[in-house]
Amino acid sequence: MGNPQGFEAFHQRSITDRDAFWAEQAQLVDWHRPFDRVCNYDNPPFARWFEGGLTNLCHNAVDRHLRDRPDQNALIFVSTETDTEKTYSFRELHTEVQRMAAILKAQGVKKGDRVLIYMPMIPEAAFAMLACVRIGAIHSVVFGGFASHSLASRIEDASPVAIVSADAGSRGGKVVEYKPLLDEAIRLSSHKPGKVVMVNRGLAAFTAVEGRDVDYATERAKVMDVVVPCEWVDATHPSYTLYTSGTTGKPKGVQRDTGGYAVALAASMKHIYMGEPGETYFSTSDIGWVVGHSYIIYGPLIGGMATIMYEGLPIRPDAGIWWSLVEKYKVSVMFSAPTAVRVLKKYDSSFIKRYDLSSLKALFLAGEPLDEPTAKWISDELGKPIVDNYWQTETGWPILAICNGVEKAPSKFGSPGKAVYGYNVKLLDDQTGEELHGSDVKGVVAVEGPLPPGCMQTIWGDDARFVKTYWSSVPGRQVYSTFDWGIRDKDGYYFILGRTDDVINVAGHRLGTREIEESISSHPKIAEVAVVGVADQLKGQVAMAFAVLKDTALLGDEAALLKLEGEVMKLVDEQLGAVARPARVRFVGVLPKTRSGKLLRRAIQAVCEGRDPGDLTTMDDPAALQQIRDMQS
Ligand code: AMP
């Protein structure tokens, strides 16, 4: 092996001398009681990291910084929606989190209970997350852009004791009322939470439900000086669940542990993001997504950094807003998504040039493929390293990246980099399960178990589904499938080529086409529908729906179809949220299927993208695809 201090040796050691490697990384966080065993993999694919250890995420993110940096900024809240800017030092954050913890306890929340958080990007959302892990409760944040139907299925699955929510969010100056969506979701769910803590921002009037809804401000006033110590929990104690879409309509609750997650994030701050204590981290994501969990809340705070929580659009009041924050708060590490950069690219680059960005060390981009023109544009404009990194809700932190904190290495446009330490990444033949060793050969990106610390422990309440979904898809071997296609070049750099399943990626947000199909099918006039992801210049992909009507006579009536398209979009908005709304709903006489009745989604997608749909010998009715093809011209 070459350089013993280099990345290759570092990665190699993380696999071949796994326990010693992670025991060292574990020193980056505080332990109330040290662990006895680094990794228990006696029952694969279930990995139990740092068994015997007692720790607490909130302690590591907040309390332990009170000694060295009590007055340093911890949370910087900026809302261009409500024109609010407020900073919290570690000491102030500590106080607010204890107050929120006391409020939750007063609502009956105990260790192991679930608390669902349905909130806009406001400080109280961060307090609620940190308060939960402080008392050993398990939070489940649901993205504020999701509507009642999506929310209901998550309430049903998580069965929370309490919910923390707010009157409204705001997007582009438009108030989005949360309370009616929440009330409807609770009505739809068979599980009813005992209590709802409502943060009233004064954006939208709402009616409190007697005996269930409590007012955050009123409760907070009762506990101003409260002390709520951290509950020391097992390293393997779940810290949160976060729902993500898959191939079925039922979302999966990705369950994360406590100790492994703390260690993984602390190590990633050092080796990948290179953020130092006292600096400022700015991730433009939302707490409803995994990036928000790992790199708005926990990662930066565990690393002793200030973190910016931003509510608003990247172009309001103008396209310079993010860069103005970089200048003002001396941001050293920034994390965003390619979609956001593509939005900014439409504006004059003087919006970047007018700010002093000397504090910025690098811009990290993740969540969807980073196309070369976008990468090149932002790299030229910023004059800073652009670091693509690839990961998933399931893993919680990067699988592929350039670990510049270990050894500086060049990025290659179009590639998120190499396998990160801890991940034994393989490319496998999807039919035979055979490992593909050659360069530039396409295979399924898979990870040999155990998954490193910080990755999902299981699917909440469904171990069997965890094994079946993630560890049984490659024939003949138990490996973790990412469900992404990839190739690797001769230097070990990977290139991600898209999903192997029916998951689509719209503006960096992952959506299951089945969920959208189920929603559209609930319209009384729709008999059947197929939803596919189609390449889009700005959003990466958009959802396109092709529906068959119960009354086919309507097909000739353009005005009626247009009206129906509007109704279907509204239905998806109401049930799932605007993120899931298809770009178009087209009406067809019949959908392309195999003779055995399987929908040919991939063929539809290929036709929509002007590609060859491939082998269609099993297709039942060739006219069905022709109809869709005709719609494209
Ligand atoms: P999510 O769990 O919502 O973060 O979505 C994860 C999926 O997004 C991955 O399985 C990939 O399909 C895609 N993805 C995430 N990051 C990247 C990246 N850097 N390059 C290409 N695809 C990515």
TrEMBL record:
Task: List the Pfam families.
Answer: ACAS_N, AMP-binding, AMP-binding_C
Q: Which UniProt keywords apply?
A: ATP-binding, Ligase, Nucleotide-binding
Q: Which InterPro entries match?
A: ACAS_N, AMP-bd_C, AMP-bd_C_sf, AMP-dep_synth/lig_dom, ANL_N_sf, Propion_PrpE
Q: Which organism is it from?
A: Hydrogenophaga pseudoflava
Q: Which residues form the AMP-dependent synthetase/ligase domain?
A: 63-450
This one is known as Propionate--CoA ligase
Chain ranges of the AMP-binding enzyme C-terminal domain: 515-598
Q: Which gene encodes it?
A: acsA3
Q: Can you provide one Gene Ontology molecular function annotated for this UniProt record?
A: propionate-CoA ligase activity
Q: Which residues form the Acetyl-coenzyme A synthetase N-terminal domain?
A: 8-61
What's any GO biological process attached to this entry? propionate catabolic process, 2-methylcitrate cycle
Concerning its family, UniProt says: Belongs to the ATP-dependent AMP-binding enzyme family.
